[in-house]
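Backbones bend. Shown next:

***
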Amino acid sequence: MRRDAPRDLDLKHADSNGIFQPVTSNDLTLGFAAPFASLDGVLARYFHYDIGVRREDVFFDNVDKMNPLNSFNTQRGLTLPKGTITILPPGDALVPRVSFSFGEGFHTNDPRIGRGAARGTVLAPSHASQLVLQKSIYQNDVCITLARVTSAQELGRIDPDTGLQQDAGPSIVKSITISARRSFSMGYLQGSFARADAHDRVIGQPIPEAPRLIGDAIGGINHLPLGLRARGEFEYVGRKFLGNDAVGNILTAFPVREFRGSLGRTFGEGRFDAAVNFLLADSFTGQTVETLALASEVVAPFPRVVGVPLKSYASVSLTYRFVRGYGASR
């Protein structure tokens, strides 16, 4: 069971004078209850199964502080089956370990209405299937994942121009992810590459703002001079479709590059950690399409790509672990 209660969810929109005016202000309460049952076992020497069923009951309470008539509370539920079949080859076999999974899931839609006249579907069910191939090759753990997810009609977010929820429609997402990891006596290296395609199932148009390409590389060294340890990560998010301009030209997001790092040391028998952390970033987050004209422009508003600049920073973190002893044990 879980309960979330976000408050003061406000959205503002720039009017024709460039002054931001409130569009929505909501208090939400979401409750989730999810009993489930599962069964796993071995069909034969090299076949393992895991099946189950899960009941999801979701409670929504939406308090619209700008338009009380849009406030509502409701409860919805879904029964979701899931299962996995795994082929376990012998340890010296050349073939990889193969797992096939299927299952039903759901998304909870944004219950805010904004300037709209009616709310959308509270729960949007989806179906997923996944094929995973795993194999250790020359001490490198390699994994290839193929996935296919179909979702029912859902309202993805509130449009920044109108305050209305955007209807993403029934969608299908196909993806492939390739990852590899190598562990050493001093640390590890890990990399992954993911490629995806997201389309509307009815008209075949690409889903705006859905990521298409993500690359990630992570590494760590545990034994540096003076007892130091280091961690580093580089992440690349490629261009993605955001929408169309007034004449139908495709608008895409700028690619995002981020490099994170940490250099730290442990003191006091593992109780105290001190580290210097940093982020080097290039691009924007929250990229979307908004129709507006800047205050310095004497033109009619037009669709343009907007976003929040990513900021590089450095920080120092200090962590102390409290250990309580019981008798002779610590």
Observations:
- DSSP finds no helices and 22 strands in the chain.
